[in-house]
Amino acid sequence: MYSLRCGCGRSGRCLGYLPRSCDGGGRGVDRLDQKLEVAGRACATLIELVSRPYGDAVVTRDATILRFVYSFETTWKAAQRVLNLYESIDVATPRAVIQSCWKAGLLNDEQAEQIMAMITDRNLTVHAYDEKLAVELATRIPAHAALLGFWLTALRNRVGREQKP
Fold this sequence. Notes:
This protein is mostly helical. It has one domain: Nucleotidyltransferases  domain 2 (Four Helix Bundle (Hemerythrin (Met), subunit A), Up-down Bundle), CATH 1.20.120. The protein is 68% helix and 0% strand. The protein has six helices and no strands. It has helices at residues 11-14, 27-50, 58-86, 94-103, 109-124, 131-159. The longest helix has 29 residues, at 58-86. The radius of gyration is 18 Å and the shape is globular. The N and C termini lie far apart (37 Å). Residues 1-7 and 9-21 have low confidence and may be disordered. It comes from Paramagnetospirillum kuznetsovii. This is Nucleotidyltransferase.
């Protein structure tokens, strides 16, 4: 837990090493900005792709599934950082992050349930070689994309950052 040198100058608080709760003397906020930016770009690429009709194009469907995976991953990790810095909540798994976002008021009951279901779809993506499953996943991804966008907006609002154009 105390593996990285902090350098925050508050050695009495964090003993000169970076525990998960230390913000690194402001560097934690910079890292949060980076995580929010990466998640925003990932979600934008997903939304761009789901807004296009792709019919029977297998390559486009598979690209949509991949973009869903990395959009979900970057968004829950950004949420994890927001919870750590702004709510003093230290959680390590997507389910725990979603539950904590719900408890912190970032998500309502329905949204939290839908994002929990999204985890199942994310886990099923490793079986995208199964044509029937891949088609089913692809039909659910547009709704997932919209919800990821909402979640990211809620995170940005929590930390007082507007979406960058």
